[in-house]
Request: fold
Amino acid sequence: MALIRKVDCVRLYVPNLDAGLAFYRDQLGHELIWRTETAAGLRLPESDAEIVLQTEEQRQETDLLVDSADAAANVFAKAGGKVIVPPFDIQVGRCVVLEDPWGNPLVLLDTSKGLFETDSDGNVIGNISPD
Reply:
């Protein structure tokens, strides 16, 4: 069975979330799924992956979904990869930052705490139980 299940999101830095939404949502037509003070998830219409606009880190990142970030870190390290940032908690589950033998960074996450629950305006108000 393959370790990586699918692309979860492509994270893009924007210096101002409202300006990013004005471009990606209002001009390019991507529907808002969820929003916090520092990030917003936008729908990719032919996929369940998201574009995530965020204001905290000035870099682009692709997040990949796994069943368990902790187990994935172990499998990845045993296969010859490197754990750069050990597994840590995020709002929806756990995350780990890895590097393959050729120096490619990978961010793997799981949704063991459940996906975001939002109000009618898309604001995150909690998590939907994973059960």
